[in-house]
Amino acid sequence: MTATSEEHAALRIASGRKAFVEPLCLGERLKQIRLANQWTLEDVSQRTGLARSTLSKIENDQVSPTFSVVQKLTTGLNIDLPQLFTPPKRERYTMGRRDLTRKGKGQLHPTPTYEHELLGHQLAQKRMIPFKTIVRARSFDEYHQWVRHDGEEFLMVLHGDIMLYSEFYAPLMLAEGDSIYFDSDMGHALVSTSADDAIVLSVCTRGDEG
Could you please report the per-residue DSSP string of the chain? Predict the structure, then answer.
């Protein structure tokens, strides 16, 4: 994907909106990813182009990352949005909550292969992560590695056709209205095969929910 489409999506995010990463505790999640890969702050700095001091402040929740910083993290670390959004385990508690997302009012976060619209983004400590995605990828070769994240995922095609590539199965064609449920720690990737970019609805569960 060229920078043009990413910039186009970025322009659609109104300026002045609060960073989406605070309720998701991105700092704790970033540190978890870094340690799991045995990376130092300098390693992450070289991969993302972000200063070590900035990364340290993010991990210690001293700053709220901007959209461009999150883009550098997902691109530099070769991870997809759900991987960054899957929060670490927390204590459970129950309260009456709800979060309405009007049509076209979700948080937009484009990547080279997907353009995500995060839904229900105001709620912290969610057990599910819902998002609508425009699948920009047209070839499996556009992926540097498998997309994988903890938990399970439900996916439904809202528009167009996709090819679902997965680590342990042959590629599977899904048409508009088709849906699939799968373990999302299994490597997977989506490619649009219709004339228009396909649009899918995905709901990811947290891996610690069992």
Answer: --HHHHHHHHHTSPTTPPPTTTTTTHHHHHHHHHHHTT--HHHHHHHH---HHHHHHHHTTSS---HHHHHHHHHHTT--HHHHH-PPP-------------TT-SEEEE-SSEEEEESSTT-SS-SEEEEEEEE---SGGG-SS-B--SSEEEEEEEES-EEEEETTEEEEEE-TT-EEEEETTS-EEEEE-SSSPEEEEEEEEPGGG-
